[in-house]
């Protein structure tokens, strides 16, 4: 078995371990109590949402820069990363809203990080809409890649901008009394394992989607050769 | 390249002047939206922040009705291939960008006075207000010109242009709303930091769009 497959399949062990650690091993936080355990799901989901977006953008740049077509299907990979990322982003918004309701008493209040994740979600929706509108167009991959690059380059402007407009309520003042992100050793380890587990899950799903796409292309090519 | 840009721009302006389709649709939308708002409020002025939000919403949706037309028209009439044969992709992008800037200027020149008149907007800092509207309009045009080409390539399907433009235009709309509201609320000295940021953003996006345009417009 290839090393890649061993790494990807380790998600079968690491994900259950992360869930058990999140619910049973990590201690509850000082103020939030048991509700703080949502952190072990919300933070990794948010991390993967951004990671998937960056991976899509980098794959898009590579796709456009690769004029000699040394790598095939990079635009498809970017699409798979973005579509998986969108699911993770929706889950980030849902878990974040639940956490916000528990901590701040409201589901949504346009906190800078809430705003940033919604913008990523809107970009995913726009990109997927554009891709579906470009179905049966030869340039689908190139146009989709150009859009993702534009979106990825615009995002840092937002990250620079949003905190200057709205004050943040995000965890710094919420988790602990001393207004810093202080995590107990076990909390830190659990969060690290959860981030690793969700990153592996994302890689595992994208890898499956890529393999399905390769198989589909092979079937189509064989069909065209036969007819 | 300059002659190619001028020739293409003159052609686009002549075609638009003959039909006046895109500009009529955009202006009609702006007039209807402004009058509907004014009618609904019965002449009672909104707070400055709300006025600023409404102004930029009308500018945004009016622009969405017209800015994609310049590329969609080429695809509708089947002239995009001839355009490619006679003009380089760089010249096409620049001429369409200049056309859209002219289009946006006409939109702003009509929408802004109309909005100020009908919604009883009290502008406390006129020069910063004008600069704020102009830089916002410039940024909207800079971002949406390449997106219009993408929409044209997809067959100009309905509201796709608005859907793909909105996430990229959010920083522009956000800043424009805040800076315009500031010019309506305060008589104090106005800094031009926001406007400079929008100018830098427009320049950056234009440069990136210029680099990416050939991948969008030229077929593989």
Distance N terminus to C terminus of chain A? 36 Å
Structural class of chain A: mainly alpha
| pLDDT < 50 stretches of chain A | 173-179
Terminal Cα span of chain B: 23 Å
List segments of chain B where confidence is low: pLDDT < 50 over at least 5 consecutive residues: none
Report the sheet with the most strands of chain A, covering strand number, pairing sense and barrel closure.
Answer: none
Number of extended strands of chain B: 0
Class from helix and strand fractions of chain B: mainly alpha
Number of domains of chain A: 1
- Per DSSP E runs of 2 or more residues, the count of β-strands of chain A stands at 0
Mean pLDDT of chain B: 86
Largest interface by residue count?
A-B, 28 and 30 residues
Helix/strand order of chain A, N-terminal first: HHHHHHHH
Q: What oligomeric state is this?
A: heterodimer
**Backbone CA Rg of chain B:** 18 Å
Helix/strand order of chain B, N-terminal first: HHHHHHHHH
Shape of chain B: globular
Keywords:
heterodimer; A: 227 residues; mainly alpha; globular; B: 220 residues; 0% strand
Structure in a nutshell:
The complex is a heterodimer of chains A (227) and B (220). Chain A has 227 residues and is mainly alpha-helical.
Question: Mind sketching the topology for me?
Answer:
The complex is a heterodimer of chains A (227) and B (220).
Chain A: H1 3-9, H2 11-25, H3 39-65, H4 74-104, H5 112-133, H6 140-165, H7 172-175, H8 185-226
Helix pairs in contact in A: 2-8, 3-4, 3-6, 3-8, 4-5, 4-6, 4-8, 5-6
Chain B: H1 2-19, H2 21-41, H3 48-66, H4 69-76, H5 80-86, H6 89-118, H7 126-153, H8 160-185, H9 193-217
Helix pairs in contact in B: 1-6, 2-3, 2-6, 3-6, 3-8, 4-7, 6-7, 6-9, 7-8, 7-9
